[in-house]
Amino acid sequence: MTLPFYQALTADVTALSAQLPLAADNLQDIRRSALERFKAIGLPTLKTEEWRFTNIQRYLKEFPYELQQTPVAVSADTVAAAAIPGLDCYRAVLVNGHLQTELSELPAGKGIIIGALSAHTTAPGFTTWFNEQPHLAEAVLAQLNTALFADGLYIELAANTVLDKPLHLVNVYTSNSPAFVQPRHLWILNRSAAATIIESTVHPDSQAVTFANSVLETVVMDNAELWHYNVQLGAANFREVHTTATHQHKDSRYHHFNFTLPSTPFTRNNLSVALKGSHTETNLKGFYLANQHQHVDNHTFMDHIMPDCYSNELYKGVLLDNANAVFTGKILVHQEAQKTNAFQQNNNLLLGDKADINSQPQLEIYADDVKCSHGFTAGQFSEESMFYLRSRGIGEDAAKALMVNAFSHDITSEVNVPELQQQLQAQIAGIMNN
Amino acid sequence: MLTIKNLHAEVEGKKILKGINLEINKGETHAIMGPNGSGKSSLASVLAGRDNYTVTEGEVWFNGKNLLELSPEDRAREGVFLAFQYPVEIPGVSNLNFLKTALNEIRTYKGLPPLEAKEFLKLTKEKQQLVDFHSNLMNRSLNEGFSGGEKKRNEIFQLAMLDPQLAILDETDSGLDIDALRIVSNGVNKLRDAEKSFVVITHYQRLLEYIIPDFVHVLYNGRIIKTGTKELALELEERGYDWLKEELHLKESV
Hints:
Distance between the termini of chain A: 48 Å
Number of domains of chain B: 1
Order of helices and strands of chain B: EEEHEEHEEHHHEHEHEHEEHH
CATH class of chain B: Alpha Beta
Organism (chain A): Chitinophaga terrae
Protein name (chain A): Iron-regulated ABC transporter permease protein SufD
Number of helices of chain B: 10
Number of strands of chain B: 12
Largest sheet of chain B: 6 strands, mixed
Domain SUF system FeS cluster assembly SufBD N-terminal (chain A): 24-168
InterPro entries (chain A): Fe-S_cluster_assembly_SufBD, SUF_FeS_clus_asmbl_SufBD_core, SUF_FeS_clus_asmbl_SufBD_sf, SUF_FeS_clus_asmbl_SufD, SufBD_N
Structural class of chain A: alpha/beta
CATH architecture of chain B: 3-Layer(aba) Sandwich
Oligomer: heterodimer
Family (chain A): Belongs to the iron-sulfur cluster assembly SufBD family.
Largest sheet of chain A: 10 strands, mixed
């Protein structure tokens, strides 16, 4: 007997796993306990503290999603449309989480391992780090992913290996019937390795509704540096829960940028960083521009476990029409984490009549010698600036577009790939001018 | 070109302008002087269309168009330019991009195609020299971190780029050192011609040694109480405003 998707999620975990038999891999124990954990925690409701402003059930009930999909061919044109103009880069194309080597241009060479996650489940990096990030255990959707994921991208850079070009990861989601897709990735940068990875989402609009529940674990070892960009453009028939869980080790630098633009109706990003060593630097930057009835929820957790670490978090949002956004910034400074510098800021422009933001900083500080700050703003354009622009002949709409570009500048100007920076600025301007 | 008839305006219920009459012809430069709080900057704001001012009475005609019915952007497109007393800093908007947008919006309004990148750069270079505006400021964010003098020079540079028919300079000289004042005034003087008119609002006579006006008006308590030539400015510098106020009170009490 097969239950409809939502009932299977809430009532009968066995039926759920029957829909997609636990893969015959070496992960059966991990998968089984994750499924148990999922069952024990249960789906979030509006009473669940971490989901108070985000009603995921509404979106899970929306369609009779299927866990298994018949593969859909993706054309080179679809992939080309996702390209970043002028950027010389490597490319990994994943369709519903499955790597498409013929559409990809993967980096190769000494110290670089890259391929389908399913092909690397016995690699030492995998057995050491898979499902190890401590915050995953509390993330119920991540548990569901661990239990039932099919595939994803595995990257491991050996010590001192530096990717000479950015890697563009193109996530294509497509299906002929409503699909619940669960990609799973693991990226490991060993000692002093460095990489820039740009993730973007493509959802060819004519296809059926897809709900993606993806999990990415990244491991940034001693003195390594990762620049990770996640660009969410999406489409009206796409919904997403995107979980990124990072381990950072001694002297490492981790820069995570999240851009959410129209028009995915439902986006929830879980981003968490656990520090496993001292003297680390963490930059978490986010920009969301939402319109119509979009719901964008950024849920971040900066876990200062070790002393002498620095983190800086800046999320900025522009909400048009009826869009609403949630920002949660949890910073936990453990008693041992002396000399922590942790900063957090969330600024919003509410431009729609019914636009709405719920922002909650959550600072828990148990060490006494730390510098921590947080701030939140929500407002409209400065009238003085608007008048200045208009007094030069710039119409109201064009002035707004300029101002939004200016507002996003704190984030876009930090993008260290000029071609991506330009594309993002053009996309933001394009949305505002529309 | 510009006709102001019996203009009354208020801000937050407070009457600021109480019946201004002024006629400005093509090619003329008018100075408006007056003590603090007399309504000088308010007049500039009302002409440019700042929306916290409410016009309660009177008319303003600009080249046959009812200026008060136009949005701030349309006034600019028709050829009115206000050089701000305190130009705003807009981080993230580059000077270049801002100017290109402004110029092209004005051109579109006039039914002209947007400027080619090459033409735009050529124009920029030419006008930059006019006001001695360093090119390294061009790529920076609009006025961000500019010194007082750089901000004022940027106003005059924008004035040169947008080429309006009527330029209103609102206390462009306040806070400027003598070198910056010279540069700004030289820029303005180079832009003066038979077609363009200037309204120079200032608190200090000093500016008028560099930008020589055709007419000087004294604004007091929301009204123009005296009009003269450049000699009036000198007299004001020597005698202050009190004698004018007295004259006015005498007249009103008769």
